[in-house]
Every structure is written in structure tokens, then in C-alpha cells.
Amino acid sequence: MPSFGQTLRPNRFKTERLKNPMIRTLRLGASISLIALIALCLAWETVLAPFKPHGSLLMLKTLPLLLPLFGILHGKRYTYQWASLFILFYFMEGAVRAWADVGLSAQLALAEVGLSVVFFICAIYYAKLTRSQ
Asked: Cβ of 88: how many Cβ atoms within 10 Å?
């Protein structure tokens, strides 16, 4: 809240950031890949190829993906920074299960790897391009 006598001015850096098409594309790519990864993990462990026949508690692996969702959707640079490291756990899980599983589960694991790589690339470049000079 501004003190008495100050005016509310829009953050110049933030408005410039929204006009940059590359930054908008990276933000959109990170948002879509994160939401798709949440949907994939949830569907994978409940319906498509669960570890146990009627679903398993592995569906709870989607809960940590909800932590960065708000910050990613709102373009918070700090969230992009820590989420780019956080997403590597899902990359590792997908790589291990793509190598160890067979059939649909292996294909879903490859999709998890792909989505985590897309998110990682978008997040690190977003964080790089939005840093203050």
C-alpha cells in the first residue's frame, strides 16, 4: 500500500514482460505442461494403468504438483525457479518406469518424461528472461 502522497503506478517491468511474446509463450508452455502432467499422473494411477487393479495410492504423487500451480499460472519468477528443480523428480520417475514397465504404463511414463522436459525448458528460460537487470 503506498504511503500518503504516492500514486499507484503499474510495475513497468511486469507490463513489459507481458508484452514480450517469447515470455508469454514460455509461460503458456509451462502452464499447459504442468496441468497436463497433473492430469496424466492422476489418470495413470487411477484409471489407465494403475499399479493395483482398482487404483493405488500412487495417485497421491499428483499432490506435490499442485504446490507450484498457482505461482506458475500467475507468472511468479521464484516459483518457476524452484519448480524447475522440483519437476526433475517426475522426470526421473518417468524415465525409470519407461525402462522398467511394459505396455501402456511404459508409454504413459514416456509421456511423463516428455511433459516434464517441456516444463523444465519453459521454466528455466522464463526465469532467465524475466530476471531484473
From this structure: 12
Under 8 Å CB-to-CB from 101, ≥6 apart: which residues? 109
Decide: 120 and 102 in contact? Cβ < 8 Å: no
Count CB neighbours of 68 within 10 A.
21
Q: Cell match 484409471: residue?
A: 47
Take residue 115 and report the three cell numbers written for it. 511433459
Radius of gyration in angstroms for the set of CA atoms belonging to the chain, rounded to a whole number: 18
Question: Quick one: DSSP state of residue 10?
Answer: -
**What are the residue ranges spanned by the domains of the chain?**
20-129
pTM over 0.85? The answer is no
Q: Are 56 and 50 in contact (CB under 8 A)?
A: yes
Q: CB of 66 within 8 A of CB of 42?
A: no
Cβ atoms of 33 and 122 closer than 8 Å? yes
* pLDDT band at residue 11 using 50, 70 and 90 as cut-offs: low
CA distance linking residue 108 with residue 94, whole number of Å = 8
